[in-house]
Amino acid sequence: MKAYDVRGLYPEQLDDRLAELFGAAFVEVTEAEAIVIGHDMRPSSPGLAASFARGAVSRGADATIIGLCSTDQLYFASGDMGLPGAMFTASHNPAQYNGIKLCRAGAAPVGQDTGLGEIRAKVEAWLSTQPASPSPSSPSPTPGTITERDTLSEYAAYLLSLVDLSEIRPLKVVVDAGNGMGGHTVPTVFAGLPLDLVPMYFELDGTFPNHEANPLDPKNLVDLQARVVAEGADLGLAFDGDADRCFVVDERGRGVSPSAITALVAARELAKHPGGTIIHNLITSWSVPEVVKEHGGTAVRTRVGHSFIKQEMARTGAVFGGEHSAHYYFREFWNADTGMLAALHVLAALGGQPGPLSDLVASYDRYAGSGEINSTVDDQMARTAAVREAFATREGVTTDDLDGLTVTAKDWWFNLRPSNTEPLLRLNVEARDTPLMTKIRDEALTLIRTPPTP
Questions:
Q1: pLDDT, tens digit, for every residue of 274-287?
Q2: Most buried by CB count within 10 Å: which residue of 138, 231, 404, 415?
Q3: Threshold 0.70, pTM exceeds
Q4: Of 347, 362, 377, at which residue does a domain stop?
Q5: CA 433, CA 453: separation in Å to the nearest integer?
Q6: What are the residue numbers of the active site?
Q7: What CATH number did the domain enclosing 53 receive?
């Protein structure tokens, strides 16, 4: 179990029986009278969603199953219907995985400290006391009901109501859905817009026959980049498996950093909400707080992860938040993340002026970044301590521990975070120019990857 969702191999770690237990525990912890459930296109997802619904109704809650949907479509349903929700997806993970993303009514986050730990404890207790039982004891004397509902058109209409696309020029856009849920949502959301849509891998297929549905890995953008150039398109969009994240490629086939998209959307949101607050995680570029300040907003730095971002959104009343991983959060979308709404903002910004996307985003992409570099290590704490010791004593260098180790100097910074689920350290480096970034990156990687002397 991760800090903000349930994830595991199907059926070895997550099966139908476990999903039923999670459904029962979810209702008990949230005290919900009704919930909404959605799922992605993985072969195991419909069965897991149905099992979760059985567990929920056994505790007296009514369950509305919205069927195939993107994760942000589930958040829309939770917000629009005012119900806690469960989304069955493993996002960008390979085909053998599945998982559950949970939220309270209004798409409010359920993380380790906001209900997920309590849900997990209930499930573990039931498993230990009733190892052979298909469901927990003490069902409600009045079981709930299960109904089905399609929310796709309502979801699309709501998103389109938040962005003015009425005056955009015609654009040619290539969309790589990665055989994920973008193939389900994009045709409906983009219908009626002046777009020449070139679809790639729109067939829903949870075995991901073309490439992993993880656009954060550059190798999974290669097909899109080549197609954008070949088509002479204005831009490309890539969605991950559950289509809650969106990555952007410019007309030259070059990836646009999520930090630049965060800055672009932040500027647009601040035009709508002058003086507003913008949330950004500590791995986004220095460009983000700079642009926010230049547009009269207040930037708030926070930990990585959607539950942390959503908590800060609620606490500060922020109008928008962005992460390096291409998760984008909107106050007008119940503080939840939606890559589709971010994509609509990019289309509106590009289509509202005559120049190419590369020129439009240039002012938002000011520094040289390494991207996220993963290193397998034997001892995360020891390797982090070695990096701290080597850098912290340098003149003008500061450190903080908001999320892993962040080391900051006048012309560069880096963050080193341990993975919660694997023996990895994740390094992100940014500097004023590429040679300096390369130098700091290589110094840090040498310390991370050199085994300690016995």
A1: 999 999 999 999 99
A2: 415
A3: yes
A4: 362
A5: 33
A6: 91
A7: 3.40.120.10
